[in-house]
Automatic annotation (TrEMBL):
Coiled coil: none
UniProt GO BP: methylation
Protein name as it appears in the record: Methyltransferase domain-containing protein
Protein source organism: Almyronema epifaneia S1
GO molecular function list: methyltransferase activity
Record key words, sorted: Methyltransferase, Transferase
Amino acid sequence: MNSEIKQQLAGYYSGRSATYDSESDFHPRLAQHLVNQAKLKPAQRVVDMATGTGLVAIAAAQQVGTQGYVLGIDFAAEMIQQAAQKAQALGLNNLQLRLADVETIKLPPADFDVVFCCSALVLLSDIPAALQHWYTLLRPGGQLAVNGFSDYAFVASMVMNRVAARYGVKLRDWNQPTGTPARFQQLLTAAGFRHVQITAKQFGGYLSLEDLQRWWRLPSDRPNPFDRPLLALSQLQLNQLKQEYFAELKAIATPQGVWNDITTYTAIARK
């Protein structure tokens, strides 16, 4: 991933910063589950990679207490600002936030007890290199707590990828790196982690066709840079793609709506 795409991605998440926590209850639930799985202890030193609005970092800071320390890192300025406002309102003096790239940030080696990354692993340009980098930041026996999603998670993305492929457009497969427990474990063990434990939890639910239609945007209006390959299509092709996309969603809809699987794998690993 080049620097231009990273800047576009940072802008995309900055644009979502004000509503990120309230878009649904998914993000807060996901973050709290990851923190709970880590079983933090008082006085631990924690770094939260791609902290966003600080959902994990704030929960971690509350658990490690005043003798502990949490560093939240993100490359989206407005996300960091949201996290800072929330931390200030809660009076958390043991939480520091830093605007930086989690893949390249320079930090002292073996300085942290726990490294977190919630839902952002698949966004990284070089996942194996990032995991190896984070490994060096942990003390011996330190813990990585990270999550990812199954091969069948996020129905709208799966259908869009399938339809776009018919037009010769390859979109990013968000689920591939962590799509199965075996694949996820191999990714972590290759980076040096051991005692990898992976558990699954379902965060999915039904989506109405009305909501899915309301969320539709043309590629030119979609600020996520990973959607940009769709811009290579003509307006006629885009109109056809849209019709096929909604036809596929309608075909799998039930009276309850379209099932949106969000099987989430949480990995806890040791250095």
